[in-house]
Amino acid sequence: MDRKEHIGKMFGKNLKHLRSSRGQSQVEFAEEIKLSDKKLSKLELGQNHPSFTTLIKLHRKFGFKVDPIIQEICENLGPYEAEFDDEE
């Protein structure tokens, strides 16, 4: 698994935990944050990365904190590498 995939999986794990802790299905949670259930499923599986808009929705609606995810990513991935220079 490359680093980009690893980041997606870590985000998805945290997102799924948030949804599960609320006792919601993917459909219920997706409706609440105005995403399709298919997009939510792909985010939870780490197959897609969230947009800034999605991150803002999660933060405003649930207080979903991005800082711990970024910290966990940094701790697990090690030092910054050039492979991220061309990422959007």
From TrEMBL:
It comes from the Bacteria. Keywords: DNA-binding. The keyword DNA-binding applies. Residues 15-69 form the HTH cro/C1-type domain. PANTHER family: DNA-BIDING PHAGE PROTEIN, TRACRIPTIONAL REGULATORY PROTEIN-RELATED-RELATED. This is Transcriptional regulator with XRE-family HTH domain.
